[in-house]
Automatic annotation (TrEMBL):
Matches recorded under InterPro entries: PrsW
GO molecular function: peptidase activity
Coiled-coil region(s): none
Protein name (Swiss-Prot/TrEMBL): PrsW family intramembrane metalloprotease
Transmembrane portions of the chain: 16-37, 70-87, 108-128, 134-152, 164-184, 211-236, 243-263, 283-304, 316-334, 354-376
Keyword list, A-Z: Membrane, Transmembrane, Transmembrane helix
Species: [Actinomadura] parvosata subsp. kistnae
């Protein structure tokens, strides 16, 4: 009997991922409530500045401007979807057609949930205000970001997650996490000005905006990026199966956030300081800062994937987030302090400051996180190699035809796999045939590594219930092998 289609997804993981996304909206709603119920400590009228009251009111409305209309649209769309599905049921529309209808409504609701924080992304405002500088920064930052994504993807020496998953994480970091982080930072800047006493100089608003801002940005920016890691982990848990893949996914989300932030700072004031920010964010700090912070968050999810106790899983994920948020807060605070006080210690020209002092600060304040995720990655790769060695030595008889003993030795050596693919590329008669042979051999290795890795997880009792069974994985290997053997020159 066909199950009655419902608006919420039937899969438990999809519902959990939806809850994570809704939780970000709930956090924004909570900040709105806090701003409304907290009495103002600053009397705007007493300052006797014309138009200040109206300006403060407009600034407060701008902070959350996409959210109330977005929530209203969600409410209307949910009511329409619920009514439409009930009407279709009363009219005895076939269940498969109602399932298609429910799926379309779910996609529409998901698009709204994602679009609301995305509209707050600074990328949109900067594109409108400084289109020329934004376009130039975009073209300059794409190669470095793609290079970094390729670097973290190649760090997976054995099984690799799909490239679309990696790009999806980067997109979340650049757009959704960027918009959520901007909302929280702007909320705190507005809240601190309205609800804390002004200093002696009432125009010194910069001091108030900086009170707590490093902690707020460190916590909420990592929360937005961590939500993306959590959602992708829940939806694609089979591919995020160890600390290695967790670090890679977290680094991809961080690189996306860093890309969006780089565009924002480089486009400010029509690119007045674009060169310095490109050097600091896309060269010297490319694999540090946001990349390192969120890589540690992803490492927590990867480690939790291989734990069996629910309490240990939650604790590990929470510790990963706390380490990343705490390091982010310390980094922001120290960079801000050094930037303000360093001129009292010594005087250097701009070139020395950019080429020497800036990398030194990154090394001091962000280096420990880089060392941490590199060591975790190294340890995870060793664990993967040992696990695959055990799995390949204990393959069932039915899988011996899919992975022979010589092939097992090749799978355990990334260098030998690369050499075989290069030999296939060089042996072909033309570049087009060589590239095709290279890709076919790469697909064979990927299918065999999938089979071996899934078998390793079954031996450890941590197999993903939604992953293909062993027979399906073996059939995929045989199909790729047949295509490789039957391919002509």
């Amino acid at each position: 009997m066909t199950e009655d289609p419902r608006l919420l997804p039937a899969c438990r993981r999809q519902r959990a991922a939806l809850l994570v996304l809704v939780s970000l909206h709930m956090v924004v709603a909570l900040t709105m409530v806090i701003s409304l119920v907290r009495p103002r400590q600053v009397d705007m009228t007493a300052l006797d500045i014309p138009g200040l009251e109206e300006l403060v009111t407009l600034a407060g409305l701008y902070v959350h401007w996409p959210y109330p209309p977005g929530w209203a649209l969600l409410a209307v769309l949910s009511a329409v979807a619920w009514g439409h599905l009930r009407y279709a049921k009363r009219r005895q529309v076939p269940a498969d057609r109602r399932a298609v209808l429910a799926r379309r409504y779910r996609r529409a609701l998901l698009a709204v949930l994602l679009a609301v924080p995305a509209l707050k992304s600074p990328l949109i405002v900067d594109l409108i205000m400084w289109p020329g500088a934004w376009a130039t920064a975009f073209l300059v930052c794409v190669p470095t970001t793609v290079y970094a994504l390729g670097l973290v993807h190649c760090a997976q020496r054995f099984r690799r997650m799909p490239v679309p998953l990696l790009l999806g994480g980067a997109g979340w970091g650049a757009i959704v996490a960027g918009g959520f982080g901007a909302t929280m930072n702007e909320w705190w800047s507005d809240f601190s000005l309205l609800h804390f006493p002004l200093p002696d100089n009432v125009l010194d608003v910069t001091y108030l905006k900086n009170i707590g801002l490093p902690m707020i940005s460190g916590f909420f920016e990592e929360l937005g990026k961590g939500a993306g890691v959590a959602i992708l982990f829940l939806l694609y848990r089979r591919h995020v199966d160890s600390v290695v893949s967790g670090i890679v996914l977290g680094a991809a989300v961080g690189l996306g956030f860093n890309f969006g932030e780089s565009l924002t700072y480089m486009a400010y004031f029509d690119g007045a300081s674009a060169g310095f920010h490109f050097w600091g964010r896309q060269v010297a700090g490319l694999m540090a800062a946001h990349t390192a912070f969120t890589a540690v968050v992803g490492a927590g999810f990867g480690i939790a994937r291989q734990l069996h106790s629910r309490s240990q899983q939650v604790t590990t994920i929470a510790l990963g987030f706390c380490v990343a948020a705490g390091a982010h807060f310390c980094n922001n605070s120290m960079l801000d302090y050094v930037g303000k006080e360093s001129h009292k210690w010594f005087t250097v020209n701009d070139t020395v400051h950019a080429l020497v002092l800036t990398p030194a600060q990154f090394l001091l304040f962000q280096g420990p996180l880089v060392v941490l995720y590199v060591l975790l990655l190294r340890r995870g790769l060793r664990s993967q190699e040992g696990g695959l060695r055990v799995a390949l030595a204990n393959l069932p008889d039915a899988a011996r035809a899919a992975i022979t003993e010589p092939e097992a030795a090749v799978l355990l050596s990334p260098a030998r796999r690369f050499r075989l693919k290069v030999d296939a590329l060089r042996a072909a008669g033309s570049p087009r045939h060589g590239i095709a042979a290279y890709r076919r051999l790469a697909r064979l290795h990927a299918a065999q590594l999938d089979l071996a890795t899934d078998h390793w997880h079954r031996l450890r009792g941590e197999a993903d219930p939604l992953a293909p069974d062993e027979a399906t994985s073996r059939a995929r290997v045989q199909a790729v092998r047949a295509a490789l053997a039957g391919a002509g020159p």
